[in-house]
Amino acid sequence: MDDRPRYMISVAADLVGMHPQTLRIYETKGLVQPQRTAGNTRLYSEADLARLRLINQLTTELGLNLAGVEHVIRLEEQLRRMQNRMERLERQMRERLQEVRRQYSAELVPYDPDARRLPIRRTWTSTD
């Protein structure tokens, strides 16, 4: 999702079918956080517009109040963080498994049926 600020409040409100005052209220409630220019003009990104559309869907189609919307958004953000964490942990586990496989294959002694005696690798002592 594009986070670059692009749209002034009037354009953003028109694109999502809301009144500009509604966007100001959502900002006051912390539901959306548009960036600001040096002159303090609100600029909304595509990600902000997607958030506003979600808020509109939650309030109109599901009948949630703004407290419910806040809760849903917080849960979605938490879920996204957890998914990112799971992906990172899975990647780390795959890397670790590859490392263990490399180490294991490097320590294997090939079987030689013609050899009189295979070398024995002991990793423990009789006192273990």
Can you tell me about this structure?
The protein has one domain (7-106): Orthogonal Bundle (Multidrug-efflux Transporter Regulator, Chain: A, Domain 2), CATH 1.10.1660.10. The protein is 58% helix and 5% strand. Strands 1-3-2 form a three-stranded antiparallel beta sheet. With 128 residues, it is mainly α. The chain is built from four helices and three strands; from the N terminus they run E-H-H-E-E-H-H. Strand 2 and strand 3 (42-44) form a beta hairpin. The radius of gyration is 29 Å and the shape is elongated.
Shape: elongated
Helix fraction by DSSP (H/I, runs of at least 4): 55-70%
Q: For the CA atoms, what is the radius of gyration?
A: 29 Å
The top level CATH class name: Mainly Alpha
Q: What's the architecture in CATH terms?
A: Orthogonal Bundle
Poorly predicted ranges: none
Number of strands: 3
Tally of alpha and pi helices: 4
| Rounded average pLDDT | 90
Adjacency order of strands in the biggest sheet: 1-3-2
Order of helices and strands: EHHEEHH
Distance between the termini: 58 Å
Structurally, the number of domains stands at 1
Label the structural class.
mainly alpha
Give a short account of the largest sheet.
3 strands, antiparallel
Proportion of beta-strand residues: 5-15%
CATH domain fold name: Multidrug-efflux Transporter Regulator, Chain: A, Domain 2
